[in-house]
Automatic annotation (TrEMBL):
Biased composition (Acidic residues): 198-214
UniProt organism field: Podospora appendiculata
Residue ranges, compositional bias (Basic and acidic residues): 355-366
Protein name, as recorded: Uncharacterized protein
Compositional bias of kind Low complexity: 173-189, 286-297
Amino acid sequence: MTSATTTPPDIRGIVTPLLSALPGAAISTLPAPTVLPLLSPILRQRVQLLSSASTEPWIRLLTYDTAKAAKLQGISQSGTLEPHPVSGEIEVDWDYDVQISYRRLDQETLQTLVVLGEFGLFVRLVYCVGDSEGGGDGWRVGEVGVASESSPLDSFGGVSTLGEAEKAFQTAGSAASAQTNGSSASGANGTAGGSNEEVAEGDDDEDEDDDDDYWGQYDATPAQTPAVKRSPAPQSMAGAGHPNIDRSASAEDAYYAQYDSVQPAMDNHDPDEEVEGMPDPTPLVQARPAIPPQEAAEQAELDETSGAWTLTEPPVRPPSVRSSRSQEEAERTANLLHPRPASSASSNGSLTVAKLEESAEKREQNEFGVKQHISRSIRSLFLLSRTLGVDREEFDRMVRTELDVLGMVEDDM
């Protein structure tokens, strides 16, 4: 925090060496070591970091208005900042051509604006505390900019002396504090009594409506879980079947007891469906009723011809019917019912043909691939020769020479 008794800045001692360094800053990419202590810590860090990573003149880093960086560089190179040939300093009329204004923004920030109307520049000074690189507490350059057509003092909003700046800041702080206290008191009085109750009731109603809307979402959500299915146990098992069960002590026994009379799904014998005097269901395999021999023979012949079968025992054929069938017809029927696999000779022949076709197909594919490789290799060699300046005729002559040599040494390969 700056003190209320801060001394005014030595404007001439700060601005004069800065103006002398501007022409060199307009053509150099790195700042001079003698200029860095004049800058504020923030501006000094900005210049050091950005100038080391750029190839442009570092004078553009002194202003935060990038649109006027080029104009600042032009003013520095225009010759108006040339030093006097006798004194070696830049001539500035500090009494008539320089305007100075002070302002305090907050408890930590105290600024001074120096407008150099003759050069069209302004320098904003900032009071810095604990600046060891700049020589301790004191005034430093916070920005160097171009003065626009309207005076920078209008937008700066400062006063002519440092003491007036301190008084203006204290007066503004007192007015703001009084306004804040008045607003707090009026707010407290305005919400007292019945209005306080109305606000509370309004908040309760709003909260209740929000809760209703929240829980109402679940009423509109369709059910995702399936409905509960009824147990296959009889309903009488719930209470009448076990009147003496203590549910608090034997709840688990009662739960499992209800499955004692449940009919398993895989058991086709249901005791509840039994009727007294009715025989058991007919088994799967039963004997056929006796039929006359002639009908039995005809039925057997039909079954054997069609390939039909049953789980019952086949009927016994009469000897006369069995002897009437010829041996040739029996073999034919056996062949129909039990077909024989293909002969080994025919199988071997088919496999051999398939292998020959497969090998021929592979040979064709390999031959095609080799031809493609040769064609692409010749094209690649031709393109390579063109890049080296070998024309088409020279390339043809080289290829033909190699083919002739290959014909002579082909037998030796």
